[in-house]
Structures are given as structure tokens and as C-alpha cells.
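Worked example (supplementary).
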Amino acid sequence: MTTPVSMLYRSTIITPDDVREVDEQVAIETPFTVMLNEEEIGSSMVLPVDLEEFGAGFLFGRGYLSSPEELVEVWVCDDGRISVFADVAEIKARDVIITSGCGGTGAIPRDMLEGTLTPPLDYSISFAEIKPFIRQALHASPLGHRTHCVHGCGLWADGELQVFFEDVGRHNAVDKMLGAILLGRAPARAAVFTTGRLTSDMVLKCARMRIPILISRTAPSSLGIAIAARAGLTLVAYAKPERLNVFCGAERIVRDSK
Amino acid sequence: MTTPVSMLYRSTIITPDDVREVDEQVAIETPFTVMLNEEEIGSSMVLPVDLEEFGAGFLFGRGYLSSPEELVEVWVCDDGRISVFADVAEIKARDVIITSGCGGTGAIPRDMLEGTLTPPLDYSISFAEIKPFIRQALHASPLGHRTHCVHGCGLWADGELQVFFEDVGRHNAVDKMLGAILLGRAPARAAVFTTGRLTSDMVLKCARMRIPILISRTAPSSLGIAIAARAGLTLVAYAKPERLNVFCGAERIVRDSK
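After joint prediction of all chains, the assembly is encoded as:
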């Protein structure tokens, strides 16, 4: 049980009156590929502990395994593979419905995780805008307050909240925002606020859209930070109207009123 | 904008001293299939609003679209399809990594969403056990408190917390618990606690394992409740050590000390 599951990241706390550096503990995301009887079934980002359990449970959840009796052995390999051996008659591809908790694109095309990214669009934001943005985004979701089961995603540009979307999945809410940009209903030269965590896929798809500033009410993961750093994107976590915790790209946060 | 996105469900508040009925607002999950140039790309559970944006953003996130210029038109059809038309040269299947926010099995094999389910195993739990179970599960995750980026899943049986798992994804944490059952390291005749929301896939995979009682710190979705009701599973939301909000199967919650 000595696998590290979190690491320290240096981040910058910015308020209207102060800037200081802090160290934050960040959870580690690592990709693992699950094999069944030497056939590759799928890959997933995982907190790298309890991987035997993860490999078996992953296959059960997707319907490849149905009972403990079928399971023969699980090997966790150093190369990022979890090899499950089981007494199952045949391995057939399943027609799956991606679920709401996870959302439309809780998945990263593998080639995009390592490809080069075009730098973000030119944009910066001051507290004169950050304060109303975060306040409006947090209050834009009556459904969230009623059901406790939806995430929100808002986009701010030209001094106002341009669009706001909700979904049962945090990925879906971000997808709706990206769709609005694709449909010409919102600009990409903007700051985006999400109520969800900043994991790898959330950051990557915003980086691919060249969105310069991504702000979350809550935490980032290790890989989310790594992708933001690679893309040159401003990544803000634990955001409050008067307090930002900036993990990358602090230069786009302007303390003086513009 | 008259599509319903939430509905009222009758649930039962159970405390050590009282039982009463309440109505709760629950967010609606609906499956939609996204098509690109008449080819089926994937299906997702969605909060049924802003579906044009969702269809376009879903395809962008998975790498099928890369810019607004490619997008021609989006139609939302009554039959649960979102048809996107775009100027893209070829549509090729992508090798995807399922991401941590979403987890190993944030996906439901389509045939399982409607198949019959074996009834849950015989089990009930009293507040004498519920109180230590929820308290221990909430305190079992130092990583969660340090990083704010992980979900936990614990399993209680025979008067104690048998296993507890953490992951960046709520689905992954549940998969690890299911894997422990498959590996013979925990019994299925048990109560399970998750810090994550009770959406369709979370409930379905526990129902398939015949787990009788599923408890969450937070909210259920409409489809999560529907699957629990179909499976005969006890579904508890917004759980606190001395207050449960039971959406299905209240008979397995015993008020008297056993």
C-alpha cells in the first residue's frame, strides 16, 4: 500500500488584495487498460490503488463478468495493464449507453492525450468580472438547488454571462457549453466556470476549443493540471468570488480593475 | 423550454424516532443517441434540455468535430436521436480512454437496462448498525478530505465495515467494491454506502450483484430510482447517521435495535 495516490502541487492564491503561493494535495489519475483473457476491453483513468478489485469490477459493470464463480485470476502489470482471467464463453463487444454521471464525453480519444495543442485564445479577466461571473453562475441553477443532482457550466465574455447549462453529468454540462460555441451561440474567447472537478478530460476538451480560462468550484486532478500546463490554459480551482486558487496561467487573472 | 427536467418522487424519511413521507424533486435522466451524418456514434444519459448543444459538444469531446466551421446542422428527433450533420471527411471509431471523473463503468450495456433482474439477497439493517456504518464510511477517506477530488464506497456486513475504496471517479470506487465481491473479499449480502450520486448505472450494477441496500450521501436521479424499484433494491439518499431518505424498499430499514 505504498503507491502514491496524491501529490503536492504549488498553486497561487489570488484575492483582490493579495497574491501568495501555497502547496495543495492533488489526487493522482493514472490510465490503466483492462484485459479479459488477453483481449483488451477498455482503458480508464483510475486512482492507482486496489487495482485487482478495479479490474474485476470494471468488467462486471460492463457486463463481461456476471458472478464470482467465473473469476480465475487478476494480475496487475507494471506497464499499466490489469489482466483478468475468467471462465467466460465468449467476449463480445457491448452496445453501451454512456451514463449521466459520467456524461457524453467522459472519455478521451487516446491520440489526443498526447498530441500538440494550439495555444489558448488571448483573454484575461479581472475581479470586477470574476465576482459577478462566479456569483451568477452559482445562482443560475435552480434545478441544482432543488435536486442536488445536476452540474452547471457557465461561459463569461464581454462583461456578461453568455450561456449557462445544466446536466446530471458534469461532462455533459461542459459538452453543452462546447456545443454552444460550435453552434456560434457563444464565443471561445471567454472564461468558463464549472461546478465539477477538473479532471483530465474536462480540461482537455476546453483546451482543444482554445478556451483560455477554466474555473471550477471544486478540485483539480493531477492529470487535469498537467494538461492545462501543457496547453498554456489558466486553471483555477476552489473558486470563490473573491478568492481564486490558480494552478496554471496566473497571468490571465488581473487584480486591478480594468 | 417546457421540457420537464425534474419530477416529484414520494420518499420516506426514517429516523430512529420517526417515519414520515415527503415529496422530493429528482433530476430526470433520459437516454439520447448522437448521430453524425446519419451514422450512430454513441448514446448517453442526458438531462433533456439544450440537446442541440449537447449533440455538437458530445461529438467535439470525442474528437469527431474540431471546429465550428465543420458544423452544418443539428436536429433533435422525437425518437431520442440527436442528428448532427457536419463537413467531416471520414468517421472512424476512436480508441478512447474512459476518464476518471466518469470511471470504469460509467456505461450501461444497453441490453441490461431492460432485462430482468434477480431479486436482491435477503438482508436488513437497523440504526444500531447504520449509525456506525455511515460515520465510519465518511471518515474512512483521508484522501478525500485532503484532495476534495475522490469518491468513497464502503460495504457493511456482519456488524462491521468490511471494505472501503476510493477513486477519482464515483463509478470506479463502486467498481472496486464490486471487484472485492467478485474476488471473494467481501460479501454481497450487505449494505453499500457511496459518496456519489445514485444515477442509473450506479444502481444497475449494484442490483446485478444482488446487493440489497444502497445508501448515498447525496441525491438519486429519476432512472436510478426506477431501476431500484424494478430490482426491489432498497435505495437511500441524503443519508446521515440518524436520518435516511428512503426512495425504495423501506422495509429493509429496521428502526428497532436488533
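Two points are worth noting when inspecting this output. The helical segments of chain B are 51-61, 127-139, 142-147, 170-182, 200-208, 222-231. DSSP finds six helices and 16 strands in chain B.
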